[in-house]
Write a structure and sequence with these properties.
heterodimer; A: mainly beta; 8 strands; about 10% helix; B: alpha/beta; eight-stranded mixed β-sheet; 3 helices
Chain lengths: ~200, ~200
Amino acid sequence: MKKIISTLLLAGALSTTATYAQDGYFAIEYTMGFSSGETSDFIESASFRGVTLEYRKMVTPNIGVGADGGWTVFYERRAQATYVRGNESLTGIQYRYLNCVPLFAAADYYFAEEGVKPYAGLGVGTLYTNETVEMGVFYIENEAWQFALRPEVGVLLEASPNLDLMVTGRYVVGFETDEQETQQYFSLNVGFVFKIW
Amino acid sequence: MKSKFFSLSMIAAAGLFWGCYPDGADYADELDLVYTVYDENYAFSAGSTYSIPDEIVKISDGLGDDVEYIQDLYAVPMLNKIKANMTALGWTRVDADQNPDIELLPAAWTSTTIVSGGYYGGYWCYWDPYYCGGGWYYPYPYYSSYTTGTFVMFMTDPQNLSTDDSRKVVWTSAINGLLTGSYDANRINQAIDQAFAQSPYLTTN
């Protein structure tokens, strides 16, 4: 991990200094997820397995539009318990997985053009979820595509003329469908922003 | 230069992410399941006697003319465990010809599942050949198998016969688990206890 961070910092440092307007950026982020609502009913544990990629094109010095997508894996081992349905009872240890892949078209507003740049944004798109419950050697799987929204607030910290550091919080909501109930989670992301000039 | 570093960072992130994927159970007993189902219209509390065979039948590819039984070394402790649970629930054991209220019939079988998969060769590359090298692959397809054992207990009502003389099943328990090379009495005993513990309606007056 240290090697990767060093490499990424070196990438920024080696790049040439730009003196013209930023055209946009690519970002890669480490994503932590914290479930809420119905998602929390399924898996309470936080996720520390996640990644997000994003691209923004600056249409004005303060407004960026683009797309982002990620992958967050929630996982929980439920201790042995008995699940009752009607006249049936099943006892065992459950292993629950929830893979969330949000894909958004997004727009952000940046409150500053250099240095520390706080921003707020909104994403509109889809949330793909793959929910699996394993018990014994059997499993049940459910997958769905949901219409999704994602408000976001964050800050970009200028590390070099070509590299920013990013900290951002997002709330991802995938709305109920026939296949899946509403899914929602908060994500905290830290990452590197590679500026495009 | 910058785009290559960016690509490299994405590959590294993907590799790290995949390596961290959670992988479920570590031990065979974590895959044990105990399932029970009962006839909601049958009044268990009205009964008081039951019968149970002295052996546990072993089912393999259906029941043929030559019925196999589990070795006494394993069967006797299991039968004793079942009897202890039935006694605790208020039932009295009688012989099958003494007109028991229910018959308790245990049986066991195993099933082997074979899975295969893997890559047949070729390095995993990024689109730019510059990043090829290293990579991981399986030089040969791999095969794996697992064997599960299922121990079932049926309670039948000998007074309730169908037209073809079959007895009505009023309670079923299925205990399923991954079999290992060694017999674990504690594991099967716990599962038998659990089957009765999650069936409190079996209690007699």
